[in-house]
Automatic annotation (TrEMBL):
Organism: Candidatus Allofournierella pullicola
Lineage, opening ranks: Bacteria, Bacillati, Bacillota, Clostridia, Eubacteriales
Family classification: Belongs to the CapA family.
Signal peptide segment: 1-27
Name of this protein: CapA family protein
The Capsule synthesis protein CapA domain, residue ranges: 63-308
CDD domains: MPP_CapA (cd07381)
Domain of life: Bacteria
Keyword terms: Signal
Stretches for region Disordered: 32-60
Positions with biased composition (Pro residues): 41-59
Length: 380
């Protein structure tokens, strides 16, 4: 039989070992006796956000406007009326002024000189000159650019012509078709409106006896188109630099609705060179319209505000919704000049009379009752 004391020692050793294992099992940080760590749910996959639709490009809308011949000569009848009445509001009716001032770009024909200097050109029956301060009248009418390619801008000589360029520049009115030298006379003018660049070129071949000098390398004058080579060169260059190109031409026979062969030939050349619109002046009366492909030709807009006579006239407007002639709507607003005042015709019978007359004398195309010009392939 074993020694009882030895048995007690063995028992106590077993108890101590068991207690040590138990203490270790439940010691802090051991993980034992702790709740099992929860495994997080996987994060949901991000939902795809649709790319925003691109905003549609807004359609541009640009309004151009054009008049025929205008004369501010101090001693001429309409300017005497202006001086007597005291302002453009008595020389143009409110409807017409609204149309003119509302255009993004308005072009008119400056058929006179601005100067206190010079004397009438010898050999000319009619010569026109206005005080330089009258250039502000263009601003009052809403005009942005004028054509000097005509047979009266040089009526009072070289000094007066130089004063004309200065007066227009001082009034912030652009000019085209003439200049201090040939380079300036051949320089197109460009305007940007609603994202579209509009170009303007002007030239002249309007004198039976050629008195107005042609601009030279070092001499002032106009851009002529009796020989169209230089004008075609300018048109081709301008066409490459703008979205819509206007060519304004001083041509034709005064007081005749019969077109000259030179007018129809030049219209073809200018359209082929890149013109999107061809507008004429000089005959002092309305002439008909025509087309060269999709290029409209308005052969003459007549006298717009020139004298005291009663004469049919018009304001031409073009609405552009994009580049090129294919995005243009051309509209003629029938007007009358009488007693030194030009007004929009509101009488439907009178409007119809003018539009019917233009349809009868037009080379091609037709005007509808609203004055919109349509190409010949669009049936009336």
């Amino acid at each position: 039989m074993k020694n009882p004391l030895e048995a007690v020692k063995i028992f106590l050793g077993v108890v101590c070992v068991a207690g040590a294992f138990a203490a270790a099992a439940f010691a802090p940080g051991s993980g034992a006796g702790q709740p099992a760590a929860s495994v997080p749910d996987p994060a949901p996959a991000p939902s795809a956000t649709p790319a925003p639709s691109p905003s549609p490009t807004p359609t541009p809308e640009v309004t151009l406007a054009f008049t025929g011949d205008v004369n501010f000569a101090d001693d001429w009848y309409n300017m005497l009326h202006y001086a007597k009445t005291g302002g453009v509001e008595d020389c143009f009716d409110p409807l017409l002024l609204e149309e003119m001032r509302g255009a993004d770009i308005l072009l008119s024909n400056n058929e006179f000189a601005f100067s206190h200097r010079g004397s009438p050109m010898p050999g000319k029956q009619f010569t026109f000159c206005s005080r330089p301060e009258n250039a502000a009248i263009w601003q009052q009418l809403g005009v942005d650019v004028v054509s000097l390619a005509n047979n009266h801008c040089f009526d009072y000589g070289a000094d007066a012509f130089a004063d004309t360029l200065t007066a227009l520049s001082d009034a912030d009115i652009a000019y085209v078709g003439a200049g201090a030298d040939l380079e300036e006379a051949m320089t197109p003018r460009y305007f940007t409106a609603d994202g579209l660049t509009i170009g303007y070129v002007a030239c002249t071949r309007a004198e039976k006896y050629i008195l107005t000098p042609e601009a030279g390398e070092d001499s002032p004058g106009v851009l002529r188109c009796y020989d169209p080579e230089l004008a075609v060169q300018v048109i081709e260059e301008a066409d490459s630099r703008c979205d819509y190109l206007v060519v304004y031409v001083h041509w034709g026979t005064e007081y005749s609705t019969q077109l000259e062969q030179a007018q129809t030939d030049l219209a073809t050349l200018f359209a082929e060179a890149g013109a999107d619109l061809i507008v004429g002046s000089h005959p002092h009366i309305l002439q008909g319209a025509g087309w060269r492909g999709d290029v409209p030709v308005l052969y003459s807009l007549g006298n717009f505000w020139f004298n005291m006579e009663t004469v049919d006239t018009a304001l031409l407007t073009v609405t552009l919704t994009g580049p090129g002639a294919e995005n243009a709507t051309v509209r003629l607003i029938p007007c009358v000049q009488t007693g030194g005042r030009t007004s929009v015709l509101t009488d439907e019978g009178e409007k119809e009379r003018i539009l019917d007359h233009l349809n009868a004398i037009s080379e091609s195309g037709w005007f509808d009752a609203d004055g919109v010009l349509h190409p010949p392939e669009e049936a009336a």
